[in-house]
Design goal:
The protein has 174 residues and is mainly beta. It is built from two helices and ten strands. It starts with 6 loop residues before the first strand and ends with a strand.
């Protein structure tokens, strides 16, 4: 079966930065909905028409991956607004109640980058924002999407990102 929308594609990959320094490796196949919300548009474009066994090598500039790094998405908030066990790397959906930084987007995941006695530094950029990426993907399987997957535009229970946040504030380990 050729990769065409809508379908589910199983991939393995290696991901590196623009200087070929490793970032991520999927050594076991993971399913992604093709034609929906699981893959970056340029990755889908490169995979279209391929079949099991094919390999794709792709160079992505920031505008085709996770965008440019935006200094305006970094802010400082009062340490008292956060849990006692706060650590760098923890992530929060939106800023906490009582935050003082004006005009920050509410629908962004903010990662704690530094913790000080008086304040916390939060970054709303994707960890790979501003980076060019090199992706080497291998197609391991292609199947028809179920009606539920097609409606959801994603593979249920298989939320996968290129770089997962190691901890979240809401559920401990991610």
């Amino acid at each position: 079966m050729q990769i065409e929308s809508p379908c589910v594609v199983s991939l393995t990959w290696t991901l590196a930065d623009g200087q070929d320094r490793p970032i991520d490796e999927l050594s076991e196949p993971v399913e992604f909905f093709f034609g929906g919300d699981d893959l970056l548009p340029k990755v889908e474009e490169a995979l279209a028409g391929h079949v099991v066994g094919d390999e794709v090598h792709l160079h992505l500039e920031p505008e085709h991956a996770f965008g440019d790094y935006k200094a305006g998405l970094v802010c400082f908030e009062d340490r008292a607004l956060f849990p006692k066990d706060l650590e760098s790397g923890m992530a929060f959906e939106g800023l906490p109640p009582g935050s003082k930084t004006p005009d920050m987007p509410r629908d962004v995941i903010y990662v704690v980058t530094e913790v000080y006695p008086s304040h916390v530094v939060l970054d709303g950029n994707h960890p790979l924002a501003g980076m060019s990426l090199r992706l080497h993907a291998k197609v391991r399987d292609v199947r028809a999407a179920t009606p539920e997957e097609a409606e959801a535009r994603t593979v249920a229970g298989s939320v996968m990102t290129l770089m997962e946040t190691s901890r979240t504030a809401s559920d401990g380990l991610h």
